[in-house]
Amino acid sequence: QAANKFATRAMLKGLENPGCIDAAAQHYAKALAPTLTDASLEDAYKAELLRLPSQSDIAREKRNDVDPSAIDQVHRTFARATASAIGTVIEAIYANTSTTVPFSPDAKSAGRRALRNTALTLLASRGSDADLSRLNAHYTGAGNMTEAAHALVILAHHDIPERSKALQHFFDRWHDDHLVIDTWFAAQAQSSLPGTLDTVRWLTTHDLFKITTPNKVRALIGTFALNNPSQFNRDDGAGYDFVAAKVLEIDSKNPQVAARLLGSFRSYKFLEPKRRALATRALQTVAACDTISRDVREIVLRMLDD
User: Residue 303 to residues 3, 37, 140, 227, 268: CA-CA distances in angstroms?
Assistant: First the structure.
């Protein structure tokens, strides 16, 4: 918890002074190293220690004039600097948590997988050819869905040929499983790449996506709105407009799902002025619709009035 708070404070300071990020990350990383190499500690504990605060965590701590793009940049810089500072330690963790033992749901095995995946996330943040090659090998060599899905999500953030190959491979392997294919939708929806909104729009027309199926809505549109702060909060307001339009479309079929999706706007008043105005406009569009359900009307009016 102390490490998490330190990283959060460092990234908050980095929003005001980007030049301090590298030094803070190196200090943070070197403080973690002795604990990460302590053989007496459980892998699950180390995984939690190594996991950085999320961008949403940083936004909640900042509270006012939140700029998701700036937070995204600071978060990337801090992750890259952390991984670079103790790269050999993290590489050793990744190598030492590899196993050929069949998948097991027991706590020890789950902790090992969590630590290996967390190490992979940080190593991939460095973005070198070797790191991205390791990431791709992790996906292609995954022996269970936990590892394959985690690698797919990370690959989706990188504009490299291996990204499209992995997405196609996953689709070909799992397109007949309507539960597993939700992972494919979600991986693309949470990508930080600039073209993600266009991808999500296209995926809403995909044969396997149904606007009337709550799980599909949550996997694609819900993931985009709730788990992709940089692209949902685009500075042109297109992310807000897209989600608002989908709320209205879904509301006529399933008001409860539409109302939950509208919750993605819950923190809009903490945004910086430009984004706040754009989000307000999108919410006003929803409120102005005469046919919206009581569920959606109550939520949108409360958001606008608070």
Answer: 34, 47, 45, 20, 9
- pLDDT tens digits along 197-251: 999 999 999 999 999 999 999 999 999 999 999 999 999 999 999 999 999 999 9
Altogether, the residues listed in the chain come to a count of 306
Helix (H) or strand (E) holding 22: helix 21-36
Q: In degrees, to the nearest 5, what angle opens at C-alpha 55 toward C-alphas 54 and 57?
A: 65
Residue 285: what residue type? T
Beta bridge partners of 66: 271
Q: What SS3 string covers 162-218?
A: HHHHHHHHHHHHHCCCCCCHHHHHHHHHCCCCCCHHHHHHHHCCCCCCCCCCHHHHH
Q: Backbone phi, then psi, for 75, in 5-degree steps?
A: -65, -45
- CA-to-CA distance for 37 and 236, rounded, in angstroms? 45
* 3-class secondary-structure state, position 235: coil
What does pTM read for this prediction?
0.94
Find tokens 């608070």 and name the residue.
Answer: 306
Which tokens is 55 given?
Answer: 């961008």
What is the dihedral angle through the alpha carbons of 237, 255, 263, 279, rounded to the nearest 10 degrees? Answer: 20
- Count CB-CB contacts under 10 A for residue 199: 17
Residue 182 to residues 30, 152, 174: CA-CA distances in angstroms? 38, 12, 10
* Residue among 279, 184, 185, 179 nearest 229 (CA): 279
How far apart CA 247 and CA 138 sit, in angstroms, is: 37
